[in-house]
Amino acid sequence: MTDILDRLRSAVGDAHVLTADAEVAAFVVDWTGTYAGRALAVVRPGSTAEVADVVAACHEAGVAIVPQGGNTGLVGGGVPDPSGEEVVLSLGRMRSVRDVDPVAGTITVDAGVVLADLHTAAEAVDRLFPMSLGSEGSCTIGGNLATNAGGTAVLRYGMTRELVLGLEVVLPDGRVWDGLRGLRKDNTGYDLTQLFVGSEGTLGVITGAVLRLFPATPRHATAWVAVPSVDAAVSLLGLAQSRAGAHLSTFEIANRQAVDLVLAHLPGASDPISEPSDWYVLVELAGAATEDGLDDALEAILGDAVEAGLAADAAIAGSPAQRTALWALREGISEAQKVEGATLKHDVTLPIASLATWAADMVPVLEEVLPGIRPVTYGHVGDGNLHYNISAPVGGDDALLAAAPDLSRAIYDSVAAGRGSISAEHGLGRSKAVAGSSYKSGVEVDLMRALKHALDPRGLMNPGVLLP
Ligand code: FAD
Ligand code: MLT
Ligand code: ZN
């Protein structure tokens, strides 16, 4: 083992190979606190050439690698297993914006660029990089690509997959694939870029990316709306789509349990609607600087929604500060639920038309397994994606969630029966690798294994993640 550590030190410099417990601590435990591993070392290369050197050294020595960006992943895919034999390869030092071309609508970045910094770089040339996540202050574009992240702008701009034009990847044997082409049109064979998107670090290390930029949307009209049911929320979505067209950029849902957690745990959070409701939606219209009238359009939509019984009340943001406060009610949910104790996370998609029935039908099923259980239900209803994140009963022991396999299995079975997906946006990681394969056909799993074997025959890239 000393040999490989020496080799890693010569690749990146002594200061960037961390082995002391205190130094590696933040890299071996995931955001949820559920996955805590050990690492042979945490290596922090500063360039693509250094990543290639590290990966080649590990390949020669037969040492497994766990790529890591901001370590905000929610399925345990970015932290090592407990063996202490894996190397964590952190992209955290690779934070350069390599090129911005506002006319072509492209930005080329290192994989370690933090999503919020990417937003700032796009804004500096009067453009928008639309991906928006609660974790954007810490997550990296490499992690977003590796997980094909979703977020609150998918409704208008699509998943990460739709925002990328080209990649630079260090392959498991240390060779570098330079696919950093910003072309919109390139029909020259298999789409290798898309192969690496959503591969969760199991096929190679993403070191750079060319991403799409969009026209800036500095004008916003934002509302927090009390709705009687998921059904009503879905009807309101249809109304907003018809009336606001392409201006509709966000349509998020949260149940009362979720909002109560934010109000209890997020400093400064307050309820903008006095009468409590079972469900809420955050609706936002966004437009260019020259587009007036978004507030009027939103007000008219909501007025009609109240008349039609789709909404009970609404608070429209009257200032940027109020807009931030409304967004905090939605974006603060994950953090607030974490304060409450352990969370059993489920990240599911179903056809939008069946979401309401599915959510209602799940409650008695879960109550039977664990009376008093709290489904904190929220997420990207406009994409058919609910975060069905479960907390133990109030005052109950988190250990009660040890019934988890039954709970999760009941949820996954019902999602599969509804032709949905058990992971809409967070990936499979370690937490859902087994379940992920069990809901795919044998043909699909065989194809995935064949791809994995073709690129990583020695199985050294993030073993145990995505494929069991
Ligand atoms: P990490 O956690 O470091 O890694 C995630 C996975 O990607 C791991 O498998 C890792 O091995 C791999 N990986 C990381 N970097 C690379 C690389 N350069 N090359 C190859 N593989 C790599 N996700 C959503 O989709 N939508 C949301 O709305 C959302 N909201 C969130 C809110 C909060 C508060 C938190 C904590 C998380 C949220 N997430 C969300 C999950 C998470 O932020 C995303 O999955 C994010 O994309 C992970 O980025 P990261 O840099 O932190 O990756
Ligand atoms: C979000 O949309 O806030 C996250 O993806 C949900 C989660 O933390 O489970
Ligand atoms: Zn989400």
TrEMBL record:
Record carries keyword Repeat: no
Residue stretches making up the FAD-binding PCMH-type domain: 35-216
Xref: PROSITE patterns: FAD_PCMH (PS51387)
Domain of life of the organism encoding this protein: Bacteria
Annotated keywords: FAD, Flavoprotein, Oxidoreductase
Any one GO BP annotation for this protein: respiratory electron transport chain
InterPro entries named among the record's database cross-references: FAD-bd_oxidored_4_C (IPR004113), FAD-bd_PCMH (IPR016166), FAD-bd_PCMH-like_sf (IPR036318), FAD-bd_PCMH_sub1 (IPR016167), FAD-bd_PCMH_sub2 (IPR016169), FAD-linked_Oxase-like_C (IPR016164), FAD-oxidored/transferase_4 (IPR051264), Oxid_FAD_bind_N (IPR006094)
Cofactor field: FAD
Protein name: FAD-binding oxidoreductase
